[in-house]
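WARN no homologs supplied; continuing
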Amino acid sequence: MDIAVIGITPVGCTVACLLSHAGHQVTIVGPENKVARIKADGITVRQVWDGMIMTSAVGAETRLSHTPELVVFATRMQDTHAAAVQAGPFIDGATIATIQYGTKPEQVVARVLPRDNIITCVLTMGATCYSPGEVTLNFKGHMVVGKAYDAPEYRVDQVLAVMGKVFTAHKGYKVAHYNCTRLLLNLPYCIPAIIGEPVQTTFMDPEMSRVAVLLLKEGITVIEAAGVHIEPLPDFNENSLKALLAAPMDEAAVRFGEIIVNMSKIPCQGPVLGSIEQGELTEIDYINGEVANIARELGYPTPLNSLMARLVHQVEKTGSFISRQEFLKNVEEAIQS
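OK structure emitted
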């Protein structure tokens, strides 16, 4: 199958490499400096859990210039609208799959491209990309494939068949609910980005894990108040999360830290710190900032998720991380306000 992956991101590079390795004709689209790197060296994905290394010589272009059968949007949320506009003349009857960390890439794409061509993919994957085309895959996770609009079932099945070759893929309904579950699981990743430490190092500290638990509690309250049910992802047990959040705080913090520390054999950046270390704007407005926006519409306070968004923007602006002591002071002030 002729597939275009739009976005030279950790997700985009992983999807492009795996699909190419599975025998598809893949072109990845992104900025000129990243395209040049991939043209020279291809894309390499290293799987942490088994040591497997895959390298694929995918095509790389700065603009989509032909009509593929499948277009996969793996851009950062803030880049998605411009990418959809550029791709528009070449979409024609192609199936469109959106896949990223944000809650609503399909909504952004649907403003520009045919909404009934759009299929949503919700992926629980941990990938680190220290340079364009060089991906460390910490864990592969699962993918839920469904539709936010009225795409015909054959498009869902088409994406499910393609992605099922490289991920453990499942057909899902009420895909917006799965998106909100993925959003919830991403909320703690702002903390490593604020203090500038790997995910595992950050959450070995019970105080940092305590803040993560508070963020999750705040987030689940807002999501449920919005009338969204937390749909269990294939590798995520809703009851386990609720049991964790119902435990005494000290116990919950320790348990959360253990889960994160055991997530990968090597240190992970997480999606927010990864963007900062690459000198790129983060998607924080579509993660913690999205929770704050939903809460604002409902009249709910979200002091912690709102604070996290502000602190990440401070790090982006100043180029300086915040000490643990200062971070915890900000958290306590936000709780007391």
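Residues 76 and 275 are 10 Å apart (CA to CA).
OK
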